[in-house]
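Problem statement: downstream parser choked on a complex file, so we are re-checking the raw output for the fe (ii) ion run. The parser issue turned out to be on our end (a line-ending mismatch), but while we're here, posting the original submission so the record is complete.
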Amino acid sequence: MTDIDYQDPKFHLLSRGRINADLIDGLFPIERSEWGNYRHFQEWPMHVLRLHRVISDACNRLIKGFERILDGSESGSEYLIANSGMAQLGLDLVAHVHHHHNYEDVNVLPGFMARFPQLTNAIDLLEKDHVFLNDTLYQSEVVFAQLRRKGAGKMQIDKALEQAKILSRILTLHTEDEEDVLIPAVLDAYS
Ligand SMILES: [Fe+2]
Ligand SMILES: [Fe+2]
């Protein structure tokens, strides 16, 4: 644990923009554009980038799907099937991200904390993101599940679209920050 006050707007995922530079600047100064030049980039770093890509692709599919339903191109039974399919996609995304974060909390972040103590504050922030994201994922689960209720209509889809956009924005921010904290350290240590 550190003394990072997560409620401070410069740290909180909803307000921070990107990770506060003070937490990582100068520790492992390898620009994202240089990552591919490192021998071990194709191993764990590429694996993490792919896992995060799966999450962002699912967010994009979810947003586009809700927008398509709201466009009104589906009607009658097609509308019901599309709605139910999107509910499933949203719930699958929530379950997948929970699983990804649990794995990181147990297997990845503690290992990095032990190996790279200079990243303690940055990793503490990532862990606090996971706690905050837990709440957002729970809210998303409730909103997506409502699409399956009898009589669910435009109001529920509007709400689901809004929730998917919030989820997409903060998950993108968290995963990119996570990559910027963890990947340069690995490239530096094992090159
Ligand atoms: Fe994470
Ligand atoms: Fe991650």
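For whoever reads this later: The chain has a mean pLDDT of 92.
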